[in-house]
């Protein structure tokens, strides 16, 4: 059995009809790959459609403001992807006259483009024999070959990359790469894979050794840090509120949020009232404080869990430097803030 022939045959009969599979335009392939990093197809598809509609060319994306890009990206998370997307669009449009590099090596030089994305673009758009390795590929190869090398180690990265490069269809690398990713996503799934109907059932080591559920191996990450966020949702008599743009590196860079009071532990009404009274925006001002959500909203990020409370501050005078409540939905905010805005229904 030739691995890629069996894989490609499965793909031809089972692949999903997706818009980026109908083109070899590097702009659209690059856009789809960036959106689908750490994002499932079902979630990423509407974002891809929205970006293509709003920015049909790399020049359109390059000419957009960062706030426009972040607003359209809202809800996808990992916002550094959006900032890198915008930076690369400006570089390609302004420095490369709108033409993406046509090979793996030069694609790697683009901001936000790593081994996986460079391999995908190079193979799909330029037929370069560059194997992709993502979570789906790790899973398929580790199970089929019975490899227990941890996938989140340097040794694992090199081993699986070399194996994928060895297996790839040299005449049609684009189809092979898309086929193995699709097979991992649709058939050789993390849980409850379709082993009974698998075309590799007779030669899959993990299946024949009852090791499917144990592969791939991934070393445990460090325990996520717990942080306590308290957002002050200020509502003034003149229908104004306060949104602040996050500065510096870190989560939610350049996104907007309500004034934040971070505490070491969860705080109750009395302590929060005292903290609010000394806040620079509220000091020496008369206001009423109330808690919107009695139970903390836990927002889980990759390395930290945010235990969040929204405190409603009804200010008994006007805000001179606020923003109109009616315009709150125009700002690019983290999904945590966006969900609150939608639920609170200003």
Automatic annotation (TrEMBL):
Keywords assigned by UniProt, alphabetized: 4Fe-4S, DNA damage, DNA repair, Glycosidase, Hydrolase, Iron, Iron-sulfur, Metal-binding
As for family, the record states: Belongs to the Nth/MutY family.
Q: How is the cofactor bound?
A: Binds 1 [4Fe-4S] cluster.
Gene that encodes the chain = mutY
Catalytic reaction(s) noted: Hydrolyzes free adenine bases from 7,8-dihydro-8-oxoguanine:adenine mismatched double-stranded DNA, leaving an apurinic site
Required co-factor? [4Fe-4S] cluster
- Give every HhH-GPD domain span: 35-186
Record-given protein name: Adenine DNA glycosylase
What EC designation does it have?
Answer: 3.2.2.31
Coiled coil, from the record: none
Its domain of life reads Bacteria
The organism is: Aestuariibaculum lutulentum
Does this entry carry the keyword Metal-binding? yes
Instruction: Name the job this protein performs.
Output: Adenine glycosylase active on G-A mispairs. MutY also corrects error-prone DNA synthesis past GO lesions which are due to the oxidatively damaged form of guanine: 7,8-dihydro-8-oxoguanine (8-oxo-dGTP).
């Amino acid at each position: 059995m030739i691995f890629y022939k069996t894989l490609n045959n499965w793909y031809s009969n089972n692949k999903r009809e997706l818009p980026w599979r109908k083109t070899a335009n590097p702009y659209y392939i690059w856009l789809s790959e960036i959106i689908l990093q750490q994002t499932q197809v079902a979630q990423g598809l509407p974002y891809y459609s929205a970006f293509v509609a709003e920015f049909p060319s790399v020049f359109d994306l390059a000419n957009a403001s960062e706030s426009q890009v972040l607003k359209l990206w809202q809800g996808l998370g990992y916002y550094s992807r959006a900032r890198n997307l915008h930076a690369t669009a400006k570089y390609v449009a302004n420095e490369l006259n709108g033409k993406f590099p046509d090979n793996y090596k030069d694609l790697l030089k683009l901001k936000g483009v790593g081994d996986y994305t460079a391999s995908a673009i190079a193979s799909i758009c330029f037929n370069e024999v560059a194997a992709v390795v993502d979570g789906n590929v790790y899973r398929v190869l580790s199970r089929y070959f019975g490899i227990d090398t941890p996938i989140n180690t340097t040794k694992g990265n090199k081993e699986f990359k070399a194996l994928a490069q060895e297996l790839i269809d040299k005449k049609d690398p684009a189809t092979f790469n898309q086929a193995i990713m699709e097979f991992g996503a649709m058939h050789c799934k993390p849980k409850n894979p379709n082993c009974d109907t698998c075309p590799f059932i007779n030669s899959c080591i993990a299946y024949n050794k009852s090791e499917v559920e144990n592969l791939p191996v991934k070393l445990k990450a460090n325990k996520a840090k717990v942080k306590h966020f308290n957002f002050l949702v200020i509502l003034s008599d003149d229908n104004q509120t306060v949104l602040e743009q996050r500065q510096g590196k870190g989560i939610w860079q350049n996104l907007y949020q309500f004034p934040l009071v971070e505490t070491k532990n969860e705080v109750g009404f009395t302590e929060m009232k005292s903290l609010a009274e000394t806040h620079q925006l509220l000091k020496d001002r008369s206001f009423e404080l109330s808690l919107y959500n009695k139970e903390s909203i836990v927002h889980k990020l990759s390395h930290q869990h945010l235990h969040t409370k929204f405190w409603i501050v009804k200010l008994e005078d006007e805000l001179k430097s606020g923003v109109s409540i009616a315009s709150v939905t125009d700002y690019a905010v983290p999904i945590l803030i966006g969900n609150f805005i939608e639920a609170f229904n200003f």
